[in-house]
C-alpha cells in the first residue's frame, strides 16, 4: 500500500530589500521617510537596505530633492 503526501507550497517571506523594490515600482520617486513609513521599517533598516540596493546598482537617488527610484528609469 502506497501512501501519498500532498506537497505544500512554502510561502516565501519577502525581504525588506524586495519590499523596497516593489514599493519603488509603484511609487517612482520616494524619500526614505515615505519608504520606511509605508513599509513599517525602522529608519536604520530602511537606510541600510537602500544603501545596499544603491551599491548593487538597483536604485539611484537625487540630491535635491533627496528621492530614491529604481535604476534605469
How is this structure best described in words?
It is built from 3 helices and 2 strands. By secondary structure, the protein is mainly α. It has a single domain, classed as Arc Repressor Mutant, subunit A, CATH 1.10.10.10. A hairpin with a 6-residue loop joins strand 1 and strand 2. The longest helix has 13 residues.
Averaged pLDDT, please? 85
Sequence of strands across the biggest β-sheet:
1-2
- Proportion of beta-strand residues: 5-15%
Rg calculated over all Cα atoms: 17 Å
Largest sheet: 2 strands, antiparallel
The CATH class, by name, is Mainly Alpha
Helix/strand order, N-terminal first: HHHEE
Helix content: 40-55%
List the domain count as a whole number.
Answer: 1
Low-confidence stretches: none
What's a quick, concise take on this entry?
This protein has one domain: Orthogonal Bundle (Arc Repressor Mutant, subunit A), CATH 1.10.10. It contains three helices and two strands.
Amino acid at each position: 500500500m502506497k501512501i501519498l503526501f500532498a506537497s505544500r507550497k512554502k510561502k516565501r517571506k519577502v525581504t525588506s530589500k524586495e519590499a523596497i523594490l516593489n514599493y519603488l515600482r509603484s511609487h517612482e520617486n520616494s524619500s526614505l521617510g515615505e519608504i520606511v513609513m509605508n513599509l513599517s521599517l525602522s529608519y536604520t533598516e530602511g537606510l541600510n537596505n537602500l544603501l545596499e540596493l544603491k551599491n548593487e546598482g538597483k536604485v539611484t537617488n537625487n540630491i535635491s530633492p533627496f528621492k530614491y527610484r529604481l535604476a534605469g528609469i
